[in-house]
Specification:
There is one protein chain. Helix content is 56%, strand content 5%. The mean pLDDT is 94. Helix 5 crosses helix 6. It has helices at 7-14, 22-33, 41-49, 54-64, 74-89, 96-108, 118-123, and strands at residues 3-5, 37-38, 112-113. It is mainly alpha-helical. It starts with a strand and ends in a 12-residue tail after the last helix. It has one domain (3-123): Rossmann fold (3-Layer(aba) Sandwich). A three-stranded parallel beta sheet has the order 2-1-3.
Length: 135
């Protein structure tokens, strides 16, 4: 099964210090080796937006080009808005990108691999599945 990997996991993997959450990194590396990682444009944008050095930006952009973006259509954006509204009604707010990730997850039956605790909150109100490490 493919896994939609959130920017929080990518950011951890790209940090210079890997002493924290090495089990998360090991799992992420396994998913990459197994060709199970799913990328969407907004996650790519989040990852690249944190890199101000142009050489590092270009290197990371080239490395990320190995991962094709899953196509997003109008239904994805409409569902994302609906999910956002549902959560907001219950007092849980999040970013447009978070709800787009949730919509892609629901529409494709992909679990979300994230370190962002907001997704636990969303899960109380919408039917998303969060990826659980195998180990």
């Amino acid at each position: 099964m493919k896994v939609l990997v959130d920017a929080s996991v990518w950011s951890l993997a790209l940090r210079k210090s890997h002493s924290v959450d090495s089990d998360v990194l090991s799992e992420f590396k396994e998913l990459i080796k197994e060709l199970r990682v799913v990328m969407i444009g907004p996650i790519r944008q989040e990852i690249l937006s944190g890199i101000s050095d142009i050489q590092k930006f270009n290197l990371l952009k080239d490395n990320l080009s190995l991962f094709d973006d899953l196509s997003l259509d109008t239904q994805c954006f409409e569902l994302a808005a609906q999910l956002s509204n549902t959560c907001r009604i219950h007092g849980s707010q999040g970013s447009h990108t978070d709800f787009l990730i949730c919509a892609v997850s629901i529409m494709n039956n992909y679990p979300i691999f994230t370190l962002d605790k907001d997704f636990e909150n969303y899960k109380k109100h919408i039917d998303i599945h969060l990826y659980k490490k195998r180990k």
